[in-house]
């Protein structure tokens, strides 16, 4: 529903110069959608009454521990001063195996957080399924989301805090998190699973810092956003308003895009629940952006999902994607001619050289993904030197079904688990 409020803001902004009243209302909407203070309390335990009627939500550890799985929280600081939180599910209650385990690292997409991997629980969410299979599951968070809003010498009110995109996530956040995990576990490599921008980020890292290829046993990319040879009409409409939206926000010194807040949670619980006549609007907006798949959407869980996503990102992260859509390429951020010459020694930003990626890559994509289309996936497949690409065998599967489809385990996760098991078996066989 934040998209509805944001659309209303845009309409009001057009008329702002004509009416002081309209200006007042647009400011009120901005303050609601982009609050300076999120006003949300994260807790480890909460009863059903609190879940629906208070300003509280469970944090990652609360979401995991309510199912009697252990969970941990770790802190790491990047080379440029961002304080990040990494979460961990070290084992499953279904197994008491304490031996050294293979590490799997999960990274969410744009506007999400580590919580997006654990909203439904055991036998449904990939993080729990991996823990049940005996993996040591680490779940990352990108700078700027609800867990990573602090810095060694800046605050979130400093515009410079928000000057980042998937490039910084890939080249600074991921190395900091990986190096911490390797040091903590005394291991030297890991499996990587990313969704959407989580895929863009690992592709950025492996092409920019090729030495990390040897530290990735295998990367599994779910709906990877990289090349933009083709854009769906609905996503194109969304992309085309971005420059105007950026200008509206810049004038009001807003650089934080859709933070998780009390406004998000209240809107989701009020307008998107099963009893609300407005629930159909929530569903329509979601499907317009990601692709329509009514059979796989559990509408009862909409308030929960929309209470955790969006979880915040930077306007610049969206702008970087916008630039790549216009360029029909996968390239560095365009700072303008003068700054490009200073940074890149050329007029336009260079493309990421994905041919440098030697780590084994497995891609899963879907036909009905309105954000990452099949043509874009095939372009990435064509350029990667060590890749296997598979389409999810269900025509309506959309961009968020990779996380929350009712039958995601059968349609996707069972294949992911089988892929990991086969790779493990092959690796172990080659050692003997």
Question: How would you characterize this protein structure?
Answer:
Helix 7 links the parallel strand 8 and strand 9. The protein contains 17 helices and 13 strands. Helix 10 runs antiparallel to helix 12. It is an alpha/beta fold and 432 residues long.
**What's the helix-strand series?**
HHEHEHEEEHEEHEHEHHEHHHEHHEHEHH
The overall average pLDDT, rounded, is 90
> What is the tally of helical segments?
17
- Class from secondary-structure proportions: alpha/beta
User: Share of helix among residues?
Assistant: 40-55%
Strand-residue fraction? 5-15%
Extract low-pLDDT stretches.
1-22
Give a brief description.
This protein has 432 residues and is α/β, with parallel strands linked by helices.
